[in-house]
Amino acid sequence: MLDFACGSGSLLLNVRRQVNKAGGAIGKIFGQEKNITTYNLARMNMLLHFT
Q: For residues 17 and 34, what is the distance between their CA atoms, to the nearest angstrom?
């Protein structure tokens, strides 16, 4: 799954949660962000939810 403007990454996390709840699976998720501050926030958010 790819989010072209991921912001803090919450959409990616919510979609992953809903797909898993429905019995499906997402292999990898990707996001990109132009703003470096928001990019770092998304990275931190992913690290906290995937460890």
A: 25
Q: How confident is the model at residue 37 (pLDDT cuts 50, 70, 90)?
A: very high
d(CA 51, CA 37): 22
The span from the CA of 14 to the CA of 25, in Å, is 13
What is this structure's pTM? 0.73
Cα separations in angstroms, 34 against 3, 5, 43: 12, 8, 13
Distance CA 31, CA 12 (A): 8
Pairing of strands 2-3, 30-31: parallel
